[in-house]
Amino acid sequence: MENVTKFVKLLIALTACFFLYMYTDQYISDYRRDYDKELTSTVTAEGEDVEVYIPEGASARKIAKILKNKGLIKYEGAFTKRLKNTDYRGKLGSGTFTLNTGMNTLDMMQIMATKMSEDVETVQLVVPEGFTVDLIGARCEKKGICSKADFVAEVKAAMQAEYGFLDDATIPSDVRYRIEGFMFPATYEIPEGMTVKELVAYMTKTFSSYYKEDYKTKAAERGLTTYQVITLASLLERECKVPEERAIMAGIYYNRMQSGMPLQVDASILYVKTDGMYDTSILKDEDRKRSSGYNTYLNEGLPSGPICNPGTACIEAVLNPADTSYLYYRLDDPEKGTHEFSETPFEGENTGDGDDPSEE
Fold this sequence. Notes:
It is built from 13 helices and six strands. By secondary structure, it is mainly alpha-helical. Strand 5 and strand 6 form a beta hairpin. It starts with a helix and ends in an 18-residue tail after the last strand.
């Protein structure tokens, strides 16, 4: 009987240890995931505005503590570690800042580095993933930063030689804007008096800070230029809004190109049809027959250039596509934006893609 009692106690102890191990393992896993998210995330989401005061001379640790106390970050160490590896190190200013709980930490740093004094008035400009030059220009006009016409004119005036990330690109003559795709989606704090030229340079410089050396290496391994990567990522950004599907859809684009099949992406035609405003998702048969370097139904391969400004999630999906034999996809649930995939054409459909599910 005594041996049985000892065995039961041992069993209970082992069971308790097992559940403690499972709980601890899950806790550590969740901690690492959340920590890594704050350390590397480039996603800008909807959130609540939070006013933050940073005293003059505050250290990086002090700033991180203030942000944590305000509910803007969870891990002070992730913030200070990320700061050390950016151009914002030692450049965070003092004063009152309006940050947002939906911002990633790099966005927060950018805002605090831009507004160097309480005396400088700023306007916050949110550029979501998938926005085009035209949509950004329209938002600038709405926010009173500059007119859409002036913004577009400055983008058109941009010369290829000004931008190092275009050094390896052969840009078709019919491209709408040479630097479409390189106006990085982020939250910008625009100081009063910033010129349109400075604004355009600010946004493209931000792209350069996000486009890692690792991206360039992976692109080269695939035989792609930066321009081609961003063009593919822009198609993905406008067509796919479900994170789990990005790599699959990117794989489909590669499969189509390798098989000599046109990409057949509706969003590429909508880009031209709507003058970059994406204010309709309706395409008619004659639209798909329209002569244009952006028509991915008539032409094989990539369109003339990017059709929007993609975020890093779509760039990474293009550089790390899923290994799949799918060639077709179509919208399955318009509300959720999910797709179904197939190796053969869907019955009754002349293409393998759905409409453009992304929202402004």
